[in-house]
Structures are given as C-alpha cells and as structure tokens.
Design brief:
Elements: E1 7-8, E2 15-16, E3 22-30, H1 48-61, H2 66-73, E4 74-82, H3 83-93
Antiparallel strand pairs: 1-2, 3-4
Length: 104
C-alpha cells in the first residue's frame, strides 16, 4: 500500500510533497451576454427573434466546430497550488487596482 501521490503546483510546476499544505482550486469561465442587440428598440429595426435567427444562421454557416464554439463560452480548470503560489493567484483574481487605465 502506498501513501498519497505528490501533486504538482499548477502555477509554478513544483512538486508538492504529501506532507505540505496545498490548495485545491476549480476555475470556471462561462461566457454570457445579457442582450443580443439593441437594434430592436429602434423603429423599423429587426426584432430580437430576427436577430437570433441571423445569429444562429451565422453559427451554422461558420467554419468552427461545435467543440470550438463551446470552448469559447465555457472553460474549466482545476488543480492544486502550493502555499506560495496561492498568494499570487488570490492577488491576481482580486479586484484590479484603481490606477490601471485599461486591463488589456
């Protein structure tokens, strides 16, 4: 019978021994859009049903596979991080500083 297997930190790649404290994480990114378009609010503009039909037609005619389209709206990752990298992850995912003009 063997003990727990060592884990690898998902951030720095260091092997985390079974006696070390580590942190498990799950990160899920899901694309959302609250409004398809605002054209329906203008007189003479297509309604939301027309906009949705146009969007579906564009998706069906596109070159991307269903898997590629899904990857654009849903991404998951899980793993373990060491104690040192935990601080980096928490700092990175916390609210950005106010003095940052643009995030990208």
């Amino acid at each position: 019978m063997s003990g727990p297997r060592p884990k690898t930190c998902a951030v720095c790649g260091r092997v985390i021994t079974p006696v070390e404290l580590y942190y498990r994480f799950t990160l899920v990114l899901e694309g959302e859009q609250d409004v398809i378009g605002t054209a329906a609010s203008r007189p003479g503009a297509p309604d939301a049903g027309d906009e949705l039909a146009t969007l579906l037609e564009r998706l069906e005619d596109g070159s991307e596979s269903a898997e590629e389209l899904e990857a654009q709206v849903h991404w998951e990752r899980g793993g373990s991080v060491c104690g040192t990298c935990r601080a980096v992850v928490v700092r990175t995912l916390s609210a950005p500083p106010e003095d940052v003009a643009e995030p990208h």
